[in-house]
Design brief:
The protein is an alpha/beta fold. Helices cover about 35% and strands about 20% of the residues. It has a nine-stranded mixed sheet with strand order 5-4-1-6-11-8-12-10-9. A hairpin with a 2-residue loop joins strand 9 (about 185-190) and strand 10 (about 195-205). It binds uridine 5'-triphosphate. Uridine 5'-triphosphate binds near residues 13, 123, 125 and 270.
């Protein structure tokens, strides 16, 4: 019997243009926007590490150096100042932050030629850039703008399903029918509690034609086979290579792809409205800031 494989590496693509956040995203990567008191990306990295991931590979690009600086920057001088000013609480917070392990590597830049440097070619193309780091292993992919708040980290839940089935797993979330047309949606057959065999992936179907209300969230476990599909993929009309389209091609070729409806709350951070709602949701839940925000909102309404 073949030995079961487990997931040790995660790819986090953060090279997108973030046009839906312009003008702010001209300078500040959307992945560093705050959710209460830490950047969106920090939630995602913590999810990966709390799921047992040992190596994170970012796919970044020129102009987004701020991301690596945030996580890998040297805080020596700042710590000295905090010590001298006896700001012990803040110093402790900074030291806790530094405990995010050093095994996060920022070695990957989307290898565009000069012409394409400012034109990222899609999430699938970004993932393809990490092919050499992954080799023959299964890998998690966590998009830099999808946060899930849950008791058990979302990726850990997906990993449990992968342990059993050893095939690609897509994370799924139930969305009200009236909003379904903004998402990638699956046609699927239930196998067991929360686990689905995916039959088809349909991008942004009109509500009437949506085969389910299960939307795709940007968290996946993939097997090395995906790289063959990404390599062969033709750019879509928008000029991008899209992961979901490659997974759909795999399905058409008769490969098994499963979906998992995770337990937890999906906080989207891909555009201004979604980010604002996610930020308010988490702030209202925060032990310190929740009460303050409620009070302020009452004054305003
Ligand atoms: P999005 O689909 O939200 O695209 O990316 P985007 O380019 O960042 O944003 P908009 O549509 O222009 O507003 C989902 C994830 O994939 C990454 C993004 O950084 C984000 O984490 N991505 C996207 C890449 O790494 N490269 C790409 O070419 C596209």
């Amino acid at each position: 019997m073949l030995k079961k494989k487990s997931v040790k590496k995660a790819i986090i693509p953060v090279a997108g243009l973030g046009t839906r956040f312009l003008p702010l995203s001209k300078i500040l990567p959307k992945e560093l926007f705050p959710l209460v008191d830490k950047p969106v990306l920090q939630y995602i990295i913590e999810e990966a590490l709390n799921s047992g991931i040992k190596e994170i590979i970012f796919v970044s690009r020129e102009g987004k150096e701020m991301i690596s600086e945030y996580f890998a920057g040297d805080n020596g001088a700042l710590k000295e100042i905090l010590k001298a000013r006896k700001k012990d609480k803040i110093l402790k917070e900074l030291k806790d932050f530094e405990k995010i392990p050093q095994n996060i590597s920022f070695s990957h830049y989307i290898s565009f030629s000069e012409v394409f440097q400012e034109e990222p070619l899609g999430d699938g193309h970004a993932i393809l850039q990490a092919k050499e780091e992954i080799k023959e292993e299964p890998v998690a992919v966590l998009f830099g703008d999808d946060v899930v708040i849950s008791k058990v980290p979302c990726l850990k839940q997906l990993m449990k399903v992968f342990e059993k089935y050893q095939c690609p797993i897509i994370s799924l979330y139930r969305v009200p029918k009236k909003r379904i047309s903004s998402y990638g949606v699956v046609k699927a057959k239930k196998l067991e509690n929360r686990i689905y065999k995916i039959k088809e992936i349909i991008e942004k179907p009109p509500a009437k034609r949506a085969p389910s209300n299960l939307a795709i969230v940007g968290k996946y476990i993939l097997t090395p086979e995906i790289f063959k599909y990404l390599q062969k993929a033709k750019p879509s009309q928008k000029g991008e290579i899209i992961l979901a389209e490659c997974l759909e091609k795999m399905l058409k070729d008769g490969k098994e792809v499963l979906g998992y409806e995770f337990e937890g709350k999906w906080l989207e951070c891909g555009d201004k409205e979604k980010w604002l709602k996610s930020h308010l949701y988490l702030t209202l839940k925060h032990p310190q800031f929740g009460k303050i925000l409620k009070k302020e909102l009452k004054k305003l309404t």
